[in-house]
Amino acid sequence: MQRKLTMTLDDRAYKGLHTVVGRGRISRFIESLIRPHVVGKDLELAYRQMAQDEAREAEALAWEEGALGDVADEAR
User: Which of 25, 26, 32 has its CA nearest to residue 9?
Assistant: First the structure.
């Protein structure tokens, strides 16, 4: 979902955006500048980085196998 935002800029900054970035591209340009500062990390990237941590993955696997063993021993 997208939201509309009203901003107040100095006249020179506004003209500079039109000159450098171009009409119709300003919103995308500003969003690309602020996104890294206000939006959390990309989840897919974060999961990939966690999967590359071999020690963490080994610990998670051991925990998972231990938990499955506990469930298998439960009475039905």
Answer: 26
